[in-house]
Amino acid sequence: MIEIMSESSGSVLAVKATGILTDADYKEIWIPGMEEIIKQFGKVKVLLYMTEDCSGWKLHAAWDDAVFGLKNRRHFEKVAVVSASKWVEWGTRLAAYLIEGEARTFPEDQLQEALDKIKS
To answer: pTM here?
Structure first.
């Protein structure tokens, strides 16, 4: 499940992910949120906070993520991913090569630092 965090404002979209992310999470919340910011500001600053109980993506959600990311790679100004999982860190490093903006991972205990970085 994805929910928009209260720290979202302006060109910043901060979301909290729990459980398994689904196609509906992307099509109803995540992608429309980013599209609206891109439409208004031209670029988006994204924070994805994957809680400890977030176990990843369903296949269609992962596909949605990849297609949107590649299609809009020049519209990402900053991406911060907060997670305790090493596989998420590696995935973020790979994604950093596919977008034009900056991408970085943070451990869960540095959520506030990640928010500060994404808002700067």
So the answer is: 0.89
